[in-house]
Structure formats: C-alpha cells, structure tokens
C-alpha cells in the first residue's frame, strides 16, 4: 500500500511542477533548468536510506542518469517549453504503453492503454503543438529504457544511493552542457524543481524500492491529468479523461492482487 501512496504523491507533484516552472523556460536554457532540478536529487539522496555499495548499481544509475536524466529530461523539458505542460506530458506518456511491453508484463497493457487514453482525452485540446509533441514522444522511448536501468540501481543501492548517484551525474553533465547559457526567473525553477524532483522523483524512487517498478510507474504516469485538470479554462473533456485514467489505475491494482 505504501508504494501506491508514494506513486500517487509522485503523480500529483509531476502534474503541478511544469505549471510552476514552464514560464521560466521561455528565457532559460533547458540544461540550466535541469541542473537546478538535479541538486534536489543529491540532497534527497543524502536523506533517504542506502542499501550499500555495488558496482553494478552505480553503473545502472550512471546509465539511467545519462540516458534518462540528461537526454530524456532535455527532450521532455523541450516539449514543455515548446508545446506547454499538457503537450509535453501527454506526448511523453507514450512510455506508459512501452514499459509493460519491454518488461514482459503484458497483463498490464490494457491498464496502460486506459491511462494513456485518459491523458489523451484530457489534453487533446493542446496537442496541435506538433513540434513539442515530437520531442515528448522521443523522450518516451528514451525513458522506457532508463526506467528499467534506474529500477536496477534502486534495488542495488537503495533509494538514497540511486538518487545521489543519478543526481551527481546529471548535475555535472548539465552544468557542462548549460555553461554560459541564459537563466531567468530562477525562483520558478527552484520551487518547480522542489515539487518535481524532491517530492515527485523522491516519492517515485521510494515507490520503486517498496513495490513493483512497472505498477508504480503506471500509477505515477497519471500526472498529465493533474496538469490538464489544473490548466484554465476548465474543460469537461478533462473530466472524461480523468475517469478513463482512473479506470486504468483500478486495473493496475486488480492485476497485482
């Protein structure tokens, strides 16, 4: 039960965060934003429990950091920057379907498709931003592989060790890639990064540690609905999307019984 609660907390945090930091992306380089976010991973890694040292775990965390934390996050942040929070979230949510297939958990595919359908319905008004959606779709493919790597790192190093290792590598890479790039409205990045990384990614990492990473990811992946429901003006299609996604999450719970 604790893994489900943590996954829901992560979904709420991920849904709210881009609404806070997106305005700063209009005049801030994506790598500069990511370097701010990664500092929260390092801090939280020092606070959460470690399971010990493991070369395999460190290598998995490093690969997940470069593949998902740098490349995948850059693609996602770019999708949000170009297309908005709803476009970035819905397009990148393709990994919801890809992950159960890659993990061999085919029984979860119907639930994944329902969550994805709900996100699509709720965010459909905004998907005309095709360029932003393209970056989000590519991010989904990148994240599918990196999630599996990160789950291995969490099992080997514990939530603290995985977060800390990933955070250090992402910070070093983004500081290098974002050197001398523009930064503005830093307060939005600080607040949005705290919600996104300290609360959202921290809760998700703990959910992986205590439960099944595929199920935790599917529950967490309802975050596009949070963004869509909070954006104004209110639209009933978002409510319909939320109902479809909730049905998918119920299926996740029933499948794992």
From TrEMBL:
Q: Where is the signal peptide?
A: none
Keywords linked to the UniProt accession: Membrane, Transmembrane, Transmembrane helix
What does the entry list under GO cellular component?
Answer: membrane
Q: Membrane-crossing residues?
A: 31-50, 57-77, 97-121, 133-151, 157-177, 189-210, 235-254
Enumerate the InterPro entries for this protein: EamA_dom (IPR000620), EmrE-like (IPR037185)
EamA domain sequence ranges: 131-253
> Has keyword Phosphoprotein?
no
The name this protein carries in UniProt is Transporter
